[in-house]
Specification:
The structure holds two protein chains of two kinds. Chain A is an alpha+beta fold. The radius of gyration of chain A is 25 Å and the shape is elongated. By secondary structure, chain B is mostly helical. Chain B has a single domain, classed as MetI-like fold (Orthogonal Bundle), CATH 1.10.3720. Chain B is globular. The N and C termini of chain B lie far apart (43 Å). The C terminus of chain B is likely disordered. Classes of the chains: A alpha+beta, B mainly alpha.
């Protein structure tokens, strides 16, 4: 499977401008709500029409504004798993699955039986969608897509409507099903965890613009832009300017930082993940003093909000100045001798844990 | 008692409802998918509901009369609808059409669009999507539109008199029979037809509530 997408679409003041290539496996499309993820999928499926651009799937042109090609969704061989599954409420499970199968297909019945069996839907053939649980509905929707024999499957936040217990179970089922599927898949999500677990590669979409396709590991271990770092779950940011070859000045924290790599001037932000921030009672190397502003007890950890003593005055951008540290409950207890929470602590950040980010 | 008004009324409203059913659904489907001039089309299709029926009848007379556009065309085929029961069907169709159109349109607009998108990506033809997905999913709205149209066609008076006249045994429907009975000071005959109309109309509405109040799964066509 190879998919090439390069499209632009204007929707009021929103500009969608995405381009990426996918080759087999599951490509994650990660972006915050309203960034244009779903619109991108709809354009690929032919439900929406881009203003300009090209969409190619396995050498077939699905859309090309210059050649005036715009295949209808019926001819694209692209399956779409909707958030609400979009099962036909007036049809039984079996009729739903058969909806996309041609009447003239030979061995139609045994083909349908095979799809029903492969998604563990035996015994439910004659039930209606409203009689099924959320998980069963999703299996029917997947069986229906697979029965239409697409070359590409688009998954539009398939777990967003489910509670967390069911979500995990369905995720496993979905991955199992897709492993047996010969075509490719795009998985749209705003959840970095899902993308990390399910996908091999990922493309970040930020305010309608796509960034480079990366292996998932790279995005989480070494994000290159601020938006990618934000989506990968990095919590602490500061604007920076270089001081020397391996030192930068953290403008929002008011302190110099030693970094492990070359501090190129193209890096304008630095990020540190919350669990890489160490809190120590006394100043030492690579530390700076901070005021403890708030302590939040989470289920398995303690989150400490801090403000560097040298941070610039509060202003509209002072949210950058807040530092969020996440540590185990035991580690926090050690920092509170005789049970009293300290008012000032030193923050220690190892140079290798500082992510240097482009705009 | 001469039962011809009942038979004529039923004949006229059944035919009118069949026409209204298809035209109303198609018009609603078309308007929902229009990109421009939606308001104009909607206004034209709804106009017969707000115009006085006599005005509708007057327009129909202009259209289907001897010098009218359609009247001349039909005359070429040796046909005429003025003062015939077919004319009454046309009048009832036009007057009941907006009820079907508006309820069907509301149902189409409220339908989950993802169902149509999903059907398209599965490769179903637009025709199949319309009859196998859209119409069944909008069935409660379409059914109530059909019943309302039937009730409206059954009670039609103004446009019918203008186009089909009030010819006993030929174009005299129940509502026209009541009018004639009151004019002719035949109170008993008027009471009788009023009772019949009341019963049929009320039964129709009960049927509609019964029909549209049931869940989707039991509303399939015989399978």
């Amino acid at each position: 499977m190879s998919l090439f997408v390069s499209i632009k679409k204007k929707l009021g003041s929103f500009h969608l401008d995405v381009s990426f290539e996918a080759d087999g496996g599951i490509l994650g499309i990660l972006g915050s709500s309203g960034c244009g993820k779903s619109m991108t999928l709809k354009c690929i499926a032919g439900i929406e029409t881009p203003d300009e651009g090209v969409i190619r799937l396995d050498g077939r042109v699905l859309f090309d504004s210059k050649q005036r090609i715009n295949l209808p969704p019926q001819k694209r061989k692209v399956g779409y798993l909707f958030q609400n599954y979009a099962l036909f409420p007036n049809m039984t499970v079996r009729q739903n699955i058969a909806a996309g199968v041609s009447k003239d297909k030979k061995d139609r019945d045994s083909f349908l039986e095979g799809k029903i069996r492969s998604l563990y839907l035996e015994g439910m053939e004659n039930k209606y969608p409203h009689q099924l649980s959320g998980g069963q509905q999703q299996r029917v929707a997947l069986a229906r897509i697979l029965a239409s024999e697409p070359e590409l499957i688009l998954l539009d936040e398939p777990f967003s409507a489910l509670d967390s217990y069911l979500r995990w179970q369905l995720e496993q089922e979905l991955v199992n099903t897709l492993e047996g599927f010969s075509g490719g898949a795009l998985f749209v999500s705003h959840s970095r965890d899902e993308v990390y677990r399910i996908c091999q590669k990922v493309c970040v979409i930020n305010e309608g613009r796509s960034e480079a396709v990366l292996p998932v590991r790279t995005l989480f271990e070494d994000p290159s832009t601020l938006s990618a770092a934000l989506l990968s779950g990095c919590k602490n940011y500061t604007r920076i300017h270089p001081l020397s070859e391996n030192a930068v000045f953290a403008e929002d924290w008011g302190v110099p930082l030693t970094v492990a790599r070359n501090a190129d001037p193209s890096f304008v932000y630095a990020g540190v993940r919350a669990h890489f921030i160490r809190l120590v009672p006394e100043p030492g190397p690579d530390t700076f003093p901070c005021v403890v502003t708030r302590v939040v007890q989470d289920v398995f950890s303690t989150i400490v909000m801090l403000r560097p003593c040298s941070a610039p005055e509060e202003g509209p951008t002072s949210s950058y100045s807040a530092i969020r540290a996440e540590l185990s409950k035991e580690a926090w207890a050690e920092l509170c001798p005789s049970g009293k929470e300290p008012a000032v602590l030193s923050v220690q950040i190892a140079p290798r844990d500082i992510l240097l980010l482009k705009a | 008692m001469d039962l011809s008004p009942l038979l004529i009324s039923l004949k006229v409203s059944v035919f009118a409802t069949v026409f209204t059913f298809f035209f109303g659904i198609l018009a609603a489907y078309w308007v929902v998918r229009m990109r421009r001039f939606q308001g104009v089309a909607d206004g034209i299709f709804t106009l017969p509901m707000v115009l006085p029926p006599t005005v509708v009848g007057f327009f129909l007379l202009l259209l289907f009369g001897k010098n009218g556009l359609l009247g001349q065309f039909l005359a070429g085929l040796n046909l005429s609808v003025v003062f015939t029961w077919q004319g009454a069907v046309i009048a009832a169709t036009v007057v009941s059409f907006p009820l079907m159109y508006r309820t069907a349109r509301g149902a189409f607009e409220q339908m989950d669009q993802n169902l149509i998108y999903a059907a398209r990506t599965l490769g179903m033809s637009e025709w199949k999507i319309f009859w196998r997905v859209t119409v069944p999913c909008c069935w409660p709205g379409i059914a109530s539109g059909t019943v309302l149209s039937f009730a409206r066609a059954l009670g039609e008076f103004g446009a019918t008199t203008m186009l089909a006249g009030n010819i006993p045994g030929k174009t005299q429907t129940m509502s026209l029979a009541i009018y004639s009975a009151v004019q002719g000071n035949n109170r008993e005959r008027a009471y009788a037809w009023v009772a019949v109309i009341l019963c049929i109309s009320f039964a129709t509405l009960l049927l509609m509530n019964h029909w549209t109040g049931r869940p989707v799964r039991s509303r399939r066509k015989g399978r």
